[in-house]
Amino acid sequence: MLDSLSPALELGRSFVRAEYQRSFAPLMLLWAGIGRFVERAPQYAVLFGPVSISARYAPASRRLIVEYLSAHRANTRLAREVRPRRPFREGGRTVAPSAAMSAPGSLDELSRRIAQIEPDGKGVPVLLRQYLQLGGRLLGFNLDRDFADTLDGLIMVDLREVEEAILARYMGRRGAAVFRAYHALDTACQTTGMS
C-alpha cells in the first residue's frame, strides 16, 4: 500500500483543546500548516493517516459511519492491501462493506441520521467531514483499544484530485499554484477529474 501511495505524507493524530473545539479556527490553522508544508514540498501529493471516531458516539452511529464510508467513500483497490489489527465489530460480527444496505446516500443524510441518534445532536465528526470534502477515501477501520476504544478510519486524500478553489483555501492562491504547476495540473484536468 505504501508503495502505491508514495511519495505520501502521513498525518498523525491532531488534538484541539476542549475550549476551542467548537471553533472552526483551530482546524483551519491546522490545514493551513499542512498546506504550507505541501507548498514547500509539493512532491507529497497524497496525505494519509487515521481519522478518529470517538467512543462517545453511540454504537449505532459508528456503525452508520462505517457503512456509509464503506459503501460510498472507499478506495477498494487500496483497501485490499490493508488489514486492521482489531476490526470494528458490532454484536460479535465484523461490520463490512457488504453490510452497507442501510447506509445513508449522502454525507448530509448521514450527519442528520447521526444527529438524531446522538443525545447532544452532534453529526459526523468535523475532521472526518473535512477529509471527505477534500475527496478523502477510506482504506479500512480499526478499533484502537489503547486510545479509549476509538474507531480509526485509515483515510487518504490525493491532493491532485482536489478542486483548485479548495486547494487555494488551505494552501493560499500561491501555494495552490506551486502545487498544481509541480504536478502539471491544468484547469482541463481539474474539471474532467483526470490528473
Question: Can you put this structure into words, describing what you see?
Answer:
The protein has one domain (2-192). It has 8 helices and 6 strands. The chain has helices at residues 2-5, 25-40, 59-72, 76-79, 107-117, 126-133, 164-182, 187-192; strands at 8-10, 46-53, 89-90, 93-94, 137-144, 150-158. A 4-stranded mixed beta sheet has the order 1-2-6-5. It has a two-stranded antiparallel ribbon with strand order 3-4. Strand 1, helix 2 (25-40) and strand 2 (46-53) form a beta-alpha-beta unit. The chain is globular, with a radius of gyration of 17 Å.
Secondary structure layout:
Elements: H1 2-5, E1 8-10, H2 25-40, E2 46-53, H3 59-72, H4 76-79, E3 89-90, E4 93-94, H5 107-117, H6 126-133, E5 137-144, E6 150-158, H7 164-182, H8 187-192
Parallel strand pairs: 1-2
Antiparallel strand pairs: 2-6, 3-4, 5-6
How would you sum up the global shape?
Answer: globular
> Segments where pLDDT lies below 50 for 5+ residues?
95-101, 188-195
The biggest beta sheet is recorded as: 4 strands, mixed
Task: List SSEs in N-to-C order.
Answer: HEHEHHEEHHEEHH
Average residue-wise pLDDT: 86
- Taken as a percent bin, the fraction of beta residues is 15-25%
Number of helices: 8
Share of helix, binned: 40-55%
Class by alpha and beta content: alpha+beta
Supply the number of structural domains.
1
Terminal CA distance reads 20 Å
Strand order of the largest sheet: 1-2-6-5
